[in-house]
Structures are given as structure tokens and as C-alpha cells.
Design goal:
It catalyses: L-glutamyl-tRNA(Gln) + L-glutamine + ATP + H2O = L-glutaminyl-tRNA(Gln) + L-glutamate + ADP + phosphate + H(+); L-aspartyl-tRNA(Asn) + L-glutamine + ATP + H2O = L-asparaginyl-tRNA(Asn) + L-glutamate + ADP + phosphate + 2 H(+). By secondary structure, the chain is an alpha+beta fold. The chain has three domains: about 10-305, no CATH class; about 315-425, no CATH class; about 435-490, Orthogonal Bundle (Arc Repressor Mutant, subunit A). It contains 15 helices and 16 strands. It has helices spanning about 65-80, 180-200, 235-255, 300-310, 315-325, 330-335, 340-350, 355-375, 385-395, 400-415, 420-425, 435-445, 450-455, 460-475, 480-490, and strands at about 10, 15-30, 85-90, 90-95, 105, 115-120, 130-145, 150, 160, 170-175, 210-220, 230-235, 265-270, 275-280, 290, 300. The strands form four sheets. Strands 1, 2, 6, 7, 10, 11, 12, 13 and 14 form a nine-stranded mixed β-sheet that branches. A three-stranded antiparallel β-sheet has the order 5-4-15, with no helix packed on it. A hairpin with a 4-residue loop joins strand 13 and strand 14. Helix 7 crosses helix 9 (about 385-395). It is elongated and about 95 Å long.
Length: about 500
Amino acid sequence: MADATAPYRITGETGEWEVVVGLEVHAQVTSNAKLFSGAATAFGAEPNTQVSLVDAAMPGMLPVPNRECIRQAVRTGMAIDAQINKWSRFDRKNYFYADLPQGYQISQLYHPIVGEGAIDISLDEKNPDASGKRIGVERIHVEQDAGKLMHDQHPTRSYVDLNRSGVALMEIVSKPDMRSPQEAGAYLAKLRSILRYVGSCDGNMDQGSMRADVNVSVRKPGDEFGTRTETKNVNSVRFVMQVVEQEAKRQVAVIEAGGRIVQETRLYDPDRGETRSMRSKEDAHDYRYFPDPDLLPLELDDAFLEECRASLPELPDAKRARYEAAGITPYQAAVLTADVDSALWFDTLLEAGAKPVAAANWTTSELFGALNRTGKDIATSPVSPGQAAELLGLVADGTLSGSLAKQVFEIMLETGDGAAKIVDERGLKQTSDTGAIEGVIAGILAANADKVEQYKGGKEALFGFFVGQTMKAMQGKANPQVVNELLKKALA
């Protein structure tokens, strides 16, 4: 098994190469409307049904900033402990494209709303502190998305869907601090988790509401940065990791064959597992940026910033630390806090009275195992936190043994009934009745006199056989602790 903390290197004919990675993540802001219009932003709507006159760039239409989009960008910046710029400005990025009706994109180039911050990642969930690394975030700016061209609707024409035109995006730009596919994957997963905790983006990468542009270059360890390429619109953590690996190997092969890396935009083909050239960026485009004359600068007051900060939830790292302080292992704490829905479900379980360690053991093994087996997620779990707390309570007070609890849980999954109801209706209560257990033990010892002699002669491993026979005879309903005590007494 590879050491997650060892430096990642690509071995070429001329020796080892280091990869340098930076990500530009576009995250669609969760809001009630688009960035500069009141049009809806629901996913999957019929083409061109969510387009206002502003989005279609009709003459005389003026943009008005959506307060909620600005608020969500600020909250996101606060969540990564970034500098919040009280003064920021919108710029026009001028270029012509068929899905950009205005002929320019409103973005923030020179004065973004959020400055430098950082995201802490872990490469080993079982030992997160030993494998941690801090990845710098250079900036977060807000901008409007373009529409979408559809080339498969007609044999000779391309159609334009402007539903996405004007949708609010946060562009979250990392520093080139990542040095492996694993670090890039961990960074993107952690960023997605933070956005979902904050509620500023749903993180649905399969729907395009979060996508990454992957900047990759290679160098000999310790040398100056090499020329980078940018692979656009990668829409899963796994694909980002594949892009880093494949693009870095391609660059090493080009350089070692005597070629040079061209600064360019590339696309990723997941079916073939390779990146392909899309367009050259040898000469940077002159987008003729200038301040948007229709929009005043954004000026944020202290009251607005205080409201944003007060609205932040407990974030993944703080929640993980709280769980660990309650005795939960670092690995389980990392698993439970990785996704906001799982963390909220687990918090509700604790609020219902479950003990932290027992609850974590059961949730990460029994519940998550059952959900994986049945193809469900925590949001569609057939067992509620309240029902789970009731089940764990019956184990804690001795009503159910571990094996009986598993039986009851399976019935809960099938029927949706509560644990106490199942125990009462099906007679699954654990017995600690010493008289009944002693009677069963006496019968088992009498039927296995030869094994009793062997045990007394020093073959102590047979004790487990006697325990198993007793539990089997009592259909798993005997209290294992009582069985052990009474067997030791009977065999003494």
C-alpha cells in the first residue's frame, strides 16, 4: 500500500519529475434567481424557459446585483478564513460567442469580492493530522455564466439554450500548491464539502453546478515552474485526479522527446482516459476588460458582514474536532463529517440521546453498510435518527445483545417499524434470567461430557464452543455476559 504522505513523482527516462497543480473551480451559487436578473435557475428546465430580457441582452435592459448571490460568496469566503474585500467591482470581459448574447461577460478581474484564504486537506482519513496539508486559495470572484450550445439537435444547425445565461458563479481559484492527483482530489472534495455545509452551492458535479479547470505543469523537483496547460470543465473528483496523472505523464513524455509544452486549453476524454488540445493560449486573448458602466462598485458594510458570519454553520473541521473530543476515532469523525447530510443525521442521533462512541460505531458500520447494500443514501435512509437512538438505547440497557440488535435492525429496514415495537411483537428481548440460562448450560455440559473433561484437562479454547452452544440453544437471546459468568462457574 502506497504511503499517502510520500512525494508523488513521475519517473521518466531522465529521472523523476514533480507535478504542479492549481484548480479553478466554478461553483453555481445557490440562490433564488440569477446574478443580475430575476429569472429562475432550476436544473433540467425546458430550453429557453428561464431567460429574462436582461439574460437575453435586450436593448435598454440594465443589470441589478442579486443580494443573495453576493451574500453566499461572502459566506463562502468566511468559511475558508479568507480576506473579505469591503469594496469590489464588476468588469466586462469582452468576447463574442453564440451563447453569450451581450457580447461580454460580467465578471470581477481586478477587484474580487474575496481575497486570499486556505483549505486544509487530509490524504489519509485514518491519520488525518499526520497527512494534512494547507492549500492556498488566491481569490473568489463572482461572475455570470454563459448559455449552452447544443450540436446534436439538428443535422446542420446548432441550437442555443440560454437557461444558464446569467446564472451566478463563484470562481474559486487555488494557488499552485498541489503536488499530486491525490492532493487535487482531496482539495476538490474538501471544497465541495465546505460549499455544501455553507449552503452556497449544492455541489452536484454531475449536473454541472460545480466544475473544475485543472492547471497542470511539470518540473524537475525544486526547479522553476514549467509551462502549464488548462483542462476545462472537469466534472468529478475522480476525473480531476485522472487529468492530473495523464496530463503530467503526457508533458513528461513530450519534454523528454525533445519537444516543448505549449500553453493551451485542453479537454478531457474520460472514455479514452486522455486530454486533447482544444485551443492554443500562446498569445493571451485581449478581452479588453473595463469596469462595467451599468454597475456601481459593491460596498459591504459591517452589519452585512456580521450577519453573514453569524449565519455560518459549524464547519467540517470544527465538527470533526468536536466528535473526536467526544471519544470518536479520527477516522470515524472524518467519515461522519465528510458529507453535510451524514453529519446532520448523526448530530440528530446524538441529540436523541445516543452515546457518541456507540453511535459512531453503529452508524459507520451497520447503517452505512446497509445503505450501500440497498443503494440508498443518508437522505433516503429508511431508519430515522430517532429510531436509531431507540435501537441503541435497547442495546445500552441490556434489552438487546449485539446479535439481536442486528436482527432488529434488518427488520427495521424492511418494515420501517421502531425497535421497541419489533422487540415486543417478535419476542426478541435478551434474557438475563440466571435460572433459565443455568438450566440450558447444565444440559449442554451433560451432553458434552467428553469436551468438559478436555477443557478441565487444559484445552481452554473449548470455552468458546460452550458459549456458542448456549447462545444457539437460547436462540441468541441470552445475555452474553451472564452466559460467560455462569459457564465459568459451572466449569470451575
